[in-house]
Specification:
about 450 residues, alpha+beta, Methyltransferase, Cobalt-precorrin-4 Transmethylase, Domain 2, Heat Shock Protein 90, Arc Repressor Mutant, subunit A, 3 domains, 20 strands, disordered N terminus
Length: about 450
């Protein structure tokens, strides 16, 4: 039985198409230079996910080559779609020498091609077995949190243009389209409403809409939760929360110096592993839960926990090999800004990084998913533990200002802190030498990145 698609393909002009291409491949967009034998796989993966567009005549790097569009080519594409089980009808549109294949979100999941099941994850189509994909749809994919429109979000008052511009810069998306056209191309709009994923990334304060979507960090004395030395909760947007939580963790760990041929600075736990665990907690958590991402730092371990446990349909044998994101749109945006690397490889990278440090890591999944990093019990003679970096009051104020506005200029800092530009210049130099901040880009389009609080 054919899947009926109505009003899915919306005609676009040349400017809109080129703007779509400039957003790059992602969860709902695939580029292909020409038709190939794996086109059915891509169509199947989109139908099993949230639908999307396949653009023929464009390379992965966004270079437009064009393609010779014929009736035979269009017929081949429809044959690929009809051979999917159950069959699918796709809509075709063309602008100049570019062909756009629009695939609707399927309503008879799961779909297969030649007995194989594919699901769109990030900018890739991943093969799953029937039980994995069926369980995933039945238990997790009934309603996707990140795909839901947020009717409470007011663009005029709640949308942070600076954060959106920062995201576009990180994702290397350049376009002359307006804000809402860009959001539409990123699959972040549902009619006139911003989806929950867009709210998480581009709101001023996340707690205005989702009280549990915070990251809470706690430093304890000793090995138990008896005495709390320090506590911090991050409640801005999702990217800021990630960056600030990572900075917090690093600031509370020991930095070692290894004396070999040269003096090398080394954090007591591998930063790569901490990054992976933190981004996984944010991306894969259950946002329907009232729980939050929790980071607990003890004398002997660091625990990173998120509500939701393992995604249903993910078997133990596939743990660390297969990725079934609970929030595919959040995953897509994190991939675009390089916070997530190869899909499905995060757990392996955590294990490998800890193995290289001769330390243990443990994974637990109950109602929460928890990663437990074993710390070194005591500092060794070599490497030797060094004191934490200390900041002056003015340095702390500068860091605080940068946290609120990563694009702030030297003159703006001088004005807000009531000191001379020369003083700001000197203190920025000091903060760079302490590896607390760094400058990304040298022009007015550049911005500051905080490396430690």
């Amino acid at each position: 039985m054919l899947l009926s698609i109505t009003s899915f393909f919306q005609s676009m002009d040349r400017k809109e198409l080129y703007g779509l291409i400039k957003t790059g491949e992602g969860y709902t967009l695939e580029f292909k230079e020409n038709i190939s034998s794996n086109l059915g796989k891509e169509i199947c993966a989109f139908a099993n996910a949230n639908g999307g567009k396949i653009i023929l005549g464009v390379k992965d790097n966004k270079e437009i080559l064009g393609i010779k569009i014929t009736n035979k080519l269009k017929s081949q594409i429809q044959d690929y779609a009809r051979n999917i089980d159950p069959s699918i009808i796709v809509n075709l549109g063309e602008i100049e020498n570019i062909l756009i294949i629009s695939v609707a979100k399927g309503n008879k999941k799961p779909y297969s091609v030649n007995g194989q099941f594919f699901l769109r994850i990030g900018a890739n189509s991943q093969q799953l077995n029937r039980d994995e994909i069926r369980d995933f749809f039945q238990k997790e994919n009934v309603i996707l949190f990140d795909n839901q429109p947020n009717i409470s979000f007011d663009f005029d008052n709640d949308f942070d243009k600076t954060k959106f511009k920062h995201f576009l810069d990180l994702a290397k998306i350049t376009s002359n389209l307006d804000k809402k056209e860009l959001l539409k191309n990123l699959f972040l709009l549902e009619g006139k409403y911003l989806k929950n994923v867009g709210v998480l990334f581009f709101c001023h304060r996340i707690t205005k809409f989702f009280m549990g979507a915070t990251v809470s960090c706690v430093l304890y004395q000793g090995k138990s939760r008896t005495n709390i030395l320090d506590r911090k909760e991050f409640n801005a947007d999702i990217l800021s929360n990630y960056n600030n939580a990572l900075i917090y963790i690093i600031s509370k760990l020991n930095t070692n110096y290894i004396i070999k041929k040269e003096r090398i600075e080394k954090l007591e736990l591998p930063e790569e592993a901490l990054r992976e665990a933190l981004v996984n907690a944010i991306v894969h958590r259950d946002y329907f839960s009232t729980g939050h991402v929790q980071i607990d730092i003890f004398l002997d371990r660091v625990e990173i926990s998120n509500p939701g446990g393992l995604v249903k349909g993910l078997s133990k044998k596939d743990f660390g090999k297969v990725s079934l994101p609970r929030n595919p749109l959040i995953m897509d945006l994190m991939l675009r800004v390089n916070k997530v690397e190869r899909i499905g490889s995060g757990i392996k990278r955590i294990k490998d990084a800890m193995h290289n440090y001769d330390l243990n890591v443990k994974f637990e999944s109950t109602g929460f998913f928890r990663v437990i990093f074993k710390r070194q019990a005591t500092p060794q003679a070599t490497p030797q533990a060094t004191p934490q970096v200390r900041f002056t009051e003015l340095e702390k104020k500068i860091i605080s200002k940068i946290q609120k506005n990563f694009k702030i200029s030297k003159n703006e800092l001088a004005k807000e802190l009531n000191v001379s530009p020369d003083t700001i210049k000197e203190y920025l130099k000091r903060l760079k030498s302490k590896k607390a901040i760094r400058r990304i880009g040298k022009t007015s389009a550049g911005y500051w990145e905080i490396l430690r609080p």
